[in-house]
Structures are given as C-alpha cells and as structure tokens.
Write a structure and sequence with these properties.
The chain has about 130 residues and is an alpha+beta fold. It is about 25% helix and about 25% strand. It has a two-stranded antiparallel sheet with strand order 1-4. Strands 2-3 form a two-stranded antiparallel sheet. It has a two-stranded antiparallel ribbon with strand order 5-8.
Length: about 130
C-alpha cells in the first residue's frame, strides 16, 4: 500500500506548468509517491491491500515508485522483487502466522495504527 520512501525532493531547473500550477525556476518540489499509490484514478480500491495491482508491466513503469522513478529508477528493482518473493514464499509455507486486529492510517503516511502485531510459529514438518 505504501512504499519504503515517502517521496523525493527535486529542484526545478526551469519554469513549468503542471495541471494548472506554475512551478518557478529554483523552487524545491516534493514528489509524494504514496499519493500515486493511493490514487483511485490509477487503481481500483487503492486503500485495499492488493500486491497484484502492479503485475501489469505498464502499471509498474508509470505508477509503481517504491525506489524512485524515471532516470533515477533503482537498479536493484528486479533483485529486490526476487528476494521479497523468496522471503514471502518461505514465510507463508513454513510458518503459521496470525495478525492481531489493527487498522490502516493513511495520513500522513500509510502505517498500521498498532504497527501490525503478529504471532508467528514454525509449522511442524509432516
């Protein structure tokens, strides 16, 4: 639902107009990535947990910004995805886990109110 970094700061090198707003040369601009990830113009039910929403390559290029974007795209993106997939596979198949009741707080960042407490136990082997 949210990415590792909140956003990035960039300095405007020339005056531009974006969606009716003027950004003057020299101004500092914050690109707030979480607003993109939670935008209902891009995603159906953006406040629901759905890790498959970025499965489409076009959505990844345009709207998935966990490590930066554009020219600053994180070079380890594919490795990070692979490592995360391996971790999740082992976590789900080798452990039992139960999350306690919690709720999502979307402002100013996406966080769980109680920090998502869970109980984890190793599964017994057959």
């Amino acid at each position: 639902m949210g990415n590792v970094i909140t956003g990035v700061m960039r300095k405007a090198t020339k005056e531009v107009k974006i969606k009716g707003y003027f950004i003057t040369n020299g101004w500092c601009v914050l690109t707030y990535f979480r607003s993109v990830h939670l935008d209902d113009d891009h995603y159906d039910s953006p406040y629901q947990f759905n890790p498959w929403r970025w499965q489409d390559k076009e959505m990844i290029i345009c709207n998935f910004t966990p490590f930066g974007g554009g020219q600053m795209l994180y070079p380890g993106l594919d490795l990070a995805r692979l490592e995360t997939s391996i971790f999740l596979h082992h976590f789900v198949t080798q452990f039992r886990w139960v999350a306690e009741d919690d709720s999502v707080n979307n402002f100013p960042t996406v966080r769980m109110k109680r920090r998502m407490p869970i109980w984890v136990k190793r599964r017994r082997r057959p």
